[in-house]
Backbone:
């Protein structure tokens, strides 16, 4: 499908919003993941924030699952609504070819 200049600008603006949301959620999730993995090192059987390791692992699974669901719903092409893949800054949609940047 061909888009007008204004439509392409709107699609790029929507992609920028989605990318900003994606980074806003992904960066803290990665820090959280690394922190929990370091805190749950096998050598330290101590509780984390007063919680048993099994509770921490349960919270970890729920938070990471929520992040995955958010990513699957948010990280889509604004034109064709298909998943954009694992790249954080694609220049175009690999499915429909619309320019994203």
Residues:
């Amino acid at each position: 499908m061909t888009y007008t200049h204004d439509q392409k600008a709107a699609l790029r603006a929507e992609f920028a919003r989605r990318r900003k949301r994606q980074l806003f959620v992904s960066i803290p999730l990665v820090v959280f993941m690394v922190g929990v993995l370091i805190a749950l090192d096998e050598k330290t059987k101590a509780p984390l924030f007063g919680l048993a390791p099994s509770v921490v692992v349960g919270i970890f699974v729920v938070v990471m699952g929520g992040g995955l669901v958010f990513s699957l719903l948010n990280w889509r092409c604004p034109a064709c609504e298909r998943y954009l893949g694992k790249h954080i800054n694609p220049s175009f949609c690999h499915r429909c070819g619309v320019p994203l940047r």
Residues 8-34+54-101 form one domain.
